[in-house]
Design brief:
Layout (H helix, E strand, L loop, with lengths): L26 H7 L38 H5 L1 H5 L4 H20 L5 E6 L5 E5 L17 H7 L22 H7 L1 E10 L2 E8 L2 E2 L4 E5 L4 E8 L1 H4 L7 H14 L4 E6 L11 E4 L4 H9 L10 E6 L5 E9 L10 E6 L2 E2 L5 H20 L10 H5 L2 E9 L4 E2 L5 E2 L2 H21 L1 H36 L17 E6 L1 H10 L5 E6 L11 H6 L1 H10 L16 E5 L4 H17 L1 H5 L3 E4 L4 E5 L2 E5 L2 H11 L6 E4 L8 H9 L6 E3 L8 H10 L3 H15 L6
The structure holds adenosine-5'-triphosphate and magnesium ion (2 copies).
């Protein structure tokens, strides 16, 4: 079962693209439009000859601006009127003619329509309506209204709403477009006591309208053969497709009977040669047939409401299925004035709003508080919906009438459905309860899914987002960059000021981090300082650690040169060893070696990292002098410039690379030593190794 929505709209008369093949444009037409020009003066360009700037084209002037006359634009650009020249477009010609007959039926002037596909490929549509007017048109002397309708774009009787109240026809182009794109088209009108006839070829009349014979009949018949120059020589009407389109129309207007007839020589499949479509229950009939064989959760909720005051009507049929419809969870088919609207619109929105409101009210009434969760999406997500509206002056989006945008359609539908649906629910409480519970469950599922997604998204962005306290370096590339993990916020502040912004990042750690040697993995994760650390490094701990994820080339632990600082450093080393030993083994981890003493005399300044170093400096640089000796209590005490010079600047600092003992068994010992009870021991260990490791340092 896949999710709902766009599916081939079976009801719009076989508009599925699957059986439509592109029809090649005939060569004769293409050649006529663009005669091959002699090319002698225009030699073939070679790569060596640079293209000269185009010469001003003296032939492009007012005379190049064409105004297409009559129906010429239709033949020139059929795509604008019928959406292309493929099989779908070809069948659209039939839809236009059938729409006109339907409009006559919906206006209550026609009771029956006859559709026929003949052996010679002509299709005809006849209705018993008023008949196309044949009297001379006041604006076009010498031409009948019929001829104007067939040969002039934007001519029609559906603009004012006087002759037709709620028609699918809107633009006054349909019949003339069909005429323009037909090799031959014959119109017969029965009215005013006579049968009238006029014939056309490619949009041009083959003679004036003729009065054929007296007749008591009423109505119109159009018989036509699509033009091979437009659609290609292999294009032809498909009986099955015409059959589907015809039947679909019959469901949409219960007052009409449609008779289908097809020459047996045209039929290559199961399409019946003769049939009669009449559906007194309209859309309910359609939906019943559509869901035959599928397991429905409810009965069909259907109805029809006609507006008395204003012309307009709404008809609908809705059913819910927990098992889905074929391979869809839901479907919606909507129509306005019998025109399919595959892209939906205001009528669909109005229906969903009405159903949702009633269901919520019902939930309230029965004391189910979870009704508040229901949205229109939940209601429609497992429903099969057919809705058809008839309104005056419908507004469609675009030329193709694929989406209804009239806002009054939403109100009309919502109002029309409210009471009937309330009654339907209260009329059979058992069914209503079943439906309500089903939809509430879907709503809860939807909420849970959304929550899961949010959690996923949150953790995904957390991975990308760096901890707030991190002052990152600006260089994107890891190469040449360093992350200083600094003890305490105040030292962090000095480090931020003393750093090289481009390559050095600072992450202050507050307080003592967890004693990781004994911590469980869960506890490690919970420690926010440590998880910040992982985020800053860009790597994941454990098996997911990847060297290439490391965001910095060097990770430098910078703690106070005292016992506490040594403890924190040892905790961090242990943490890195436990969670990402590869980083330690690869030599990415360093210790900064901040000085303990500052020795100065006049302008001469030296820094000593411990007592023996101090003695060394005294002997070497201050012989016979009495220098001022200051002892740093912590990194935070240093001026940013001092911190930079002594500890951070690659030109003047000393770093100790953290290395692992060569024997892997010793590692546990190392950790034990680092974490041992006596702080002095740990401190010495680090100092010793710092001494040792300081040899392969950068300078
Ligand atoms: N079967 C018919 N019976 C009576 N009048 C018709 C019939 N077919 C067409 N007409 C008249 O011809 C006019 C022009 O039809 P056409 O299909 O060109 O335009 P339309 O239906 O008004 O609008 P659209 O271009 O949207 O189809 C119609 O408005 C109607 O007055
Ligand atoms: Mg029309
Ligand atoms: Mg017209």
């Amino acid at each position: 079962m896949t999710s709902s929505t766009p599916q081939p709209n079976l009801f719009n008369g076989g508009e599925e693209p699957k059986d439509s093949q592109p029809v090649p444009e005939t060569s004769s037409r293409a050649e006529k439009r663009q005669p091959a020009k002699p090319v002698a003066s225009n030699p073939v360009k070679t790569p060596e000859t640079p293209t000269p700037p185009p010469a001003p084209d003296s032939t492009y002037g007012a005379s190049s601006i064409e105004v297409l006359e009559g129906l010429e634009p239709v033949r020139m650009r059929p795509g604008m009127y019928i959406g292309g020249t493929d099989e779908k477009a070809l069948h659209h010609l039939f839809a236009e003619v059938l729409d006109n007959a339907m409009d006559e039926a919906v206006a209550n002037h026609a009771k029956a329509i006859w559709v026929e596909l003949d052996a010679d490929g002509y299709v005809s549509v006849r209705d018993d309506g008023r008949g196309i007017p044949v009297d001379p048109h006041p604006k076009y002397p010498g031409k009948s209204a019929l001829e104007v309708i067939m040969t002039v774009l934007h001519s029609g009787g559906k603009f004012s709403g006087k002759a037709y109240a709620t028609s699918g026809g809107l633009h006054g182009v349909g019949a003339s477009v069909v005429n323009a794109l037909s090799e031959r088209l014959e119109v017969t009108a029965w009215r005013d006591g006579f049968e009238w006839q006029q014939n056309f070829a490619r949009g041009h009349s083959l003679g004036p309208i003729e009065q054929i014979q007296p007749s008591k009949k009423r109505g119109t018949k159009m018989r036509f053969l699509p033009d091979v120059e437009i659609f290609g020589s292999t294009a032809h009407f498909k009986p099955a497709r015409l059959y589907r389109m015809t039947k679909a129309k019959a469901y949409l207007f219960r007052g009409v009977q449609i008779f289908w007839k097809c020459a047996t020589s045209q039929i290559t499949d199961q399409t019946p040669p003769e049939d009669k479509f009449y559906f007194p229950n309209g859309l309910a009939d359609y939906l019943a047939e559509r869901i035959k064989g599928t397991e429905a959760l409810t009965d069909i909720f259907s109805g029809r409401v006609e507006r008395k005051d204003d012309a307009g009507a709404v008809e609908w049929a809705v059913v819910w299925s927990g098992a889905g419809f074929d391979d869809h969870d839901s479907f919606v088919q909507s129509y306005c004035n019998t025109i399919p609207t595959p892209d939906g619109g205001t009528h669909e929105a109005g229906l969903r709003a009405a159903l949702t409101r009633s269901l919520k009210t019902y939930a309230e009434m029965t004391g189910d508080k979870r009704g508040g969760l229901i949205t229109a999406e939940d209601v429609a997500a497992y429903a099969g919906i057919v809705i058809s509206v008839f309104i005056r002056n419908p507004e469609f989006q675009g030329q193709t009438k694929d989406r209804l945008s009239s806002s009054d359609a939403a109100r009309l539908v919502e109002r029309a459905l409210a009471d009937p649906f309330d009654h339907w629910l209260t009329g059979s409480p058992k069914q209503a309860e079943k439906l309500l519970q089903y939809i509430i469950e879907r709503a809860e599922e939807r909420l849970k899914k959304r929550k899961d997604k949010e959690v996923q998204r949150a953790s995904a962005t957390r991975k990308l987002r760096l901890p707030g306290k991190l002052a990152d370096c600006s260089r994107q590339d890891a190469i040449g960059t360093e992350l200083f993990i600094v003890e305490g916020d105040s030292a962090g502040g000095s480090a931020k000021q003393g750093r090289n912004r481009n390559t050095q990042a600072i992450l202050p750690l507050r307080g003592k981090i967890l004693n990781v040697a004994s911590a469980t993995v869960d506890k490690l994760r919970q420690n926010s300082e440590l998880s910040d650390l992982g985020l800053a490094l860009g790597v994941q701990p454990g098996a997911k650690f990847k060297e290439e994820d490391l965001r910095y080339e060097r990770i430098i632990i910078m703690t106070d040169a005292d016992v506490d600082g040594a403890h924190i450093a040892s905790l961090l080393i242990t943490f890195f060893y436990r969670t990402m030993p590869a980083m330690v083994r690869n030599g990415n981890l360093y210790l900064a070696l901040p000085p303990l003493y500052r020795l100065s005399h006049g302008k001469e300044v030296h820094y000593a990292k411990d007592d023996s170093h101090r003695a060394e400096i005294l002997a070497k640089h201050f012989k016979g002098k009495k220098p001022e000796i200051g002892r740093f209590k912590g990194l935070g005490e240093m001026m940013p410039a001092q911190l930079k010079e002594t500890t951070m600047d690659p030109k003047t600092r000393t770093l100790a690379r953290v290395t692992l003992p060569h024997e892997e068994e010793d590692i546990e010992d190392l950790v034990e030593t680092l974490m041992g009870r006596k702080p002095e021991l740990r401190y010495r260990y680090i100092q010793d190794h710092a001494e040792f490791a300081a040899e392969d340092l950068d300078v």
